[in-house]
Amino acid sequence: MSRRNRAYYLRRRPQGTTTGVDLELVEERVPDLGPGQALVRTTHLSVDPTTRVWMSDYPAYMPSAPLDAVLRGVGVGEVVESRRDDLPVGATVLGWTDWQDYCVADDSALISPFTVLPDPLPAPPGAFLGVLGHTGITGWLGVDIGRPQPGDTVVVSAAGGAVGSVGGQLAKLAGARVVGIASGPDKCRHVTTTLGFDTCVDRTAADWRDQLDAATPDGVDMDFENVGGEIMDHVLGRLRIGARVVLCGMISGYDALGSGSSAGQHEISQLIMKRATMHGFLVFDHADRFATIVDELAGHLAAGRLHADETVLDGLEKAPDALGQLFTGANLGKIVVRTRV
Amino acid sequence: MSRRNRAYYLRRRPQGTTTGVDLELVEERVPDLGPGQALVRTTHLSVDPTTRVWMSDYPAYMPSAPLDAVLRGVGVGEVVESRRDDLPVGATVLGWTDWQDYCVADDSALISPFTVLPDPLPAPPGAFLGVLGHTGITGWLGVDIGRPQPGDTVVVSAAGGAVGSVGGQLAKLAGARVVGIASGPDKCRHVTTTLGFDTCVDRTAADWRDQLDAATPDGVDMDFENVGGEIMDHVLGRLRIGARVVLCGMISGYDALGSGSSAGQHEISQLIMKRATMHGFLVFDHADRFATIVDELAGHLAAGRLHADETVLDGLEKAPDALGQLFTGANLGKIVVRTRV
C-alpha cells in the first residue's frame, strides 16, 4: 500500500498580502523510508506570522523557504513508520512537519530535530504549538527581556494573539499595568475580561491613537512589540525615559518584505529622546531554557493564572486561510490547522 | 556705559533645511544684573545637530526652543560682571550662553548652571565644547554602551564629525576594526590617515553601499549611529547576530522633524533577525561621570592617542552657516563659532 501525501508547495514569492495563490496543493506518493528516517503523519500544523517572512526573499534569521518545495512549518504529528529508535511508531512528536500530511523525519532539519512529546500528553496537542510551545515561550522570553516592574505601564500589541496574550498576562503577573492593542471591540473585550489586561485599545477604531494616549497617561515603560508600523511609532512617541522596547515581531510590515514598499518606522529617534533600548530576540536562541520555561507556563496554566486561546481550523486545505487570518487579526490566540480531523 | 548685545532670535520653526532665514539677528541693550546674576560674554559658541532638533516642534529630550526668544546653545565665555560668588569676574565659564554675545547667568538654566573652567585652561576654549566637552563625552559614552571587543567590526557614521571621530578612535583603542562613513574623498582620507580608522566609506559616492559591503565582509558587530536614514538601514542589513546599535543621533532626519515627511527606517526588523539591541542615549544623563571621562579623554589627547579636529568660524553672524555645514557634511570635527575674534 502506498500512502498519498498532500503538500503545499511554494511556487512563487507573495507580492503583498498572501492569499494562498502562491501555494499549490500537490498530491504525491509518500516516499519509502531510508535508514535513519521516520514517517510522521501531521496532526496539527502551526501557522505563524513568520511563515510569511519565510515565503519572502527577505534576509531573515533563516534562509527563505525554497521555491518549488513544500512550505516550511512546525507541527505536531504521529510517527507511523520508523527506521530510527528515537522516533518509535505511535509516538506523538513535535518538529518541522512542513505544510503537508506526511513528513519524512531525519537528521536534515534546519534548526532542531523532531522531539517526542510526553505520553500521555499533559495538554491538547495544539498547546505544544502555542502556550506550551514556541509562541508561549516567546511571550515568556519577551517579558524576561523587558523585565516589567510593579507599577510599570506595559503596552502589548497584537494582544489577542498567541504571543501577545501570553506576554501580557505574564507582565500582569509581574505586577505591571498592562495595556493591550487588538483588533475590534470583541477581541478587546476578551483581552480585558478573560485575559485580565487592565485595558485594551481597539486598533480598528478611528480614534485608536487617542485611546492609547488615554490608556497610558504617564507614558509607557515597556512595549512588547508584535506589530510595528504606525502602531509601534505611536507607542514610541509615548515612551518614558529609560523604557524598554521588546521587539518580537513586526507583522504589519511582513506583506511588504522584499518589495521595497515598506512604510517604515518614523519615530525611531524617540529611542534617543527617551534613552530607550530596543531588544530584538528570537525564540530559537533560547532552546536550552525551553524545558524550564514550559514548566513554568504549565504551572501557571494549571493554577488558572494563565489563559490560552486557540483558533482551530480543520483540514490542511485551510492552512492558507489560517495564514491570512493572522494578517487581518481575525484569529484569537494561537491559530492551528488540524490536519487529521 | 550700556553694553550692546547681538542675539539670534528664533522667529519660526524651520521647514526642511535650515538656512538661517528662521533666525533674526537682533541688537539690543544688555540688561542690568539683578541679585544672583552674572554677565557672561560669549567667546565660543557650540553648534550641534541637536540645535536643529530644538528649533523644531518635535517632542525631544528638552522642550523646543521657544519662538521669539534667543536660540538655545552651549558656549564658553568670560564673566564680565557678577553679582554671584561662584562666577567671579574674569573666570572662563561653560554653559548655556545661547546664540548671543552676552548672556545673563543665573539659576534658571534648564539642565545645568554655568561651570567655571580651570585656570589656566589646559586646552583651547573650543575643546571644552568638543573633545573635552559634550561631543567628546558623547563619543566616549557610545563606546562604553556598545562595548566593542577586540576583533569586532565597528561602523561609525559621520566619522569625521565631532562625536564619530572620537567614538571611532576609542573603538580602535579598544581593539576593534573600525569602518567610518563620511562625506567625500578628502574627509575619508583624513578619517583613515589622521584618525586611524581602518577604512572609510564615502557616502557621496554612487557605490557607497558596495563600499560598505566590501568594508564589512563579516558583518557589523557594533554600529555607532549618528546619521540614520538609508545609511543606518544599510548598516542594519549587515548586522551580525547579537550586534549592538548605539543610537546617538539621526541627523539625516532632523530637517524633516515635525513635518511628517521623514523617509523612515525600513530595516528595523533586522534587529529581530539578528537578535540585536539598539540603545538610545543622551550625554546629559551622565553628568556624574563627566569629570572622570574628561580626564580619560585628556589623557588620550596628551599621549597622542586621540586626535581632535575643530572647524572654527569667526563671528557670531557665521552661526547659521555653521549649523548648515553640519547638514551638508562640510565641517571637519567639532564646529565652533568664535564670537570674539
What does this structure look like?
- 2 copies of one chain form a homodimer.
- Chain A folds into 2 domains: 4-129 and 309-338, Quinone Oxidoreductase, Chain A, domain 1, CATH 3.90.180.10; 134-284, 3-Layer(aba) Sandwich (Rossmann fold), CATH 3.40.50.720.
- Helix content of chain A is 25%, strand content 26%.
- In chain A, the strands form 3 sheets. In chain A, strands 3, 5, 6, 7, 8, 15 and 16 form a 7-stranded mixed beta sheet that branches. A 6-stranded parallel beta sheet of chain A has the order 11-10-9-12-13-14, with helices on both faces. A 3-stranded antiparallel beta sheet of chain A has the order 2-1-4, with no helix packed on it.
- The two termini of chain A are 22 Å apart.
- Chain A contains 9 helices and 16 strands.
- The first copy, chain A, has helices at 49-55, 134-146, 162-173, 185-193, 208-215, 229-236, 270-273, 290-302, 319-328, and strands at residues 4-10, 23-29, 38-46, 69-70, 75-82, 92-95, 102-105, 115-116, 153-157, 177-182, 199-202, 220-225, 239-247, 277-280, 310-314, 334-338.
- The A-B interface holds A 58-61, 228, 237, 247-250, 253, 257, 262-266, 268-282, 285 and B 58-61, 228, 237, 247-250, 253, 257, 262-266, 268-282, 285.
- Strand 14 of chain A pairs antiparallel with strand 13 (277-280) of chain B, so a sheet runs across the interface.
